[in-house]
Amino acid sequence: MSTHSRVVVITGASSGIGEAVALEYAQQGFMVYACGRNQTKLNALSDNSVNITPCTFDLNDQTELKNALPKDLAIDHLILNAGTCEYIDNPKQFDGALFERVIQTNLISVGYCLEAWLKQVKFGGQVGLMSSSAAYVPLTRAEAYGASKAGISYLAKTLSVDLEPQEIGISVIHPGFVKTPLTNKNDFDMPGIIDADDAAKAIFKGMSKGTFDIHFPKGFTWTLKVLSFLPFSLWRPLAKRMIKT
Description:
InterPro entries: NAD(P)-bd_dom_sf, Sc_DH/Rdtase_CS, SDR_fam. The protein is α/β, with parallel strands linked by helices and 245 residues long. It has helices spanning 16-27, 39-46, 62-66, 96-117, 143-162, 196-209, 218-227, 232-240; strands at residues 7-10, 31-36, 52-56, 75-80, 121-130, 169-175, 178-179, 194-195, 213-216. The chain contains eight helices and nine strands. The strands form two sheets. A seven-stranded parallel beta sheet has the order 3-2-1-4-5-6-9, sandwiched between helices.
């Protein structure tokens, strides 16, 4: 099937995975609405392809979000990718403001996007929600990030059931480590890390096939999937070894 004139909307497209996904979809012939907060980066992205339209707004501003796209835009693929990552370094002095920031950006803003745009997704369209392989098992310092991504994974499952009568497919994306500006800040080993271009190819392939659980790189994510079946009483001692003292 030709992808010409098909439309994809991608949030968080100004850098990292979102930027790579926008370029991949444009190369595949989609008309790409690349959404983000950084006008300069989005303009530079659109300079790479006539298929990319930059859309600059803040996902946490519902007024801006609701007016960001044409109301008559029919969407084939919707990829809600925008997110952030911050860690809780001292759980006894729990940072509630940090927790709120991460949950707001990674989870609540997804609800805003769904409210604004889900009605514009075509019959037979596909919606991709960006979770993380961190949602498979509880990891140290990830109280905020992991909770937000676990919420996304649950949301994807419920939407997959409730949207089936409308024949709108749901994909939940569980990346392992991908080289991006966010992961560049990590101060720990990142096994199996891959380039954003490889992540984008996996996402496009999975979305095009209507795959529910898009996860990569397979060696790393399958390991976490297997570990997720361990009783928590067995996983907890393994997780404790990751704590920095």
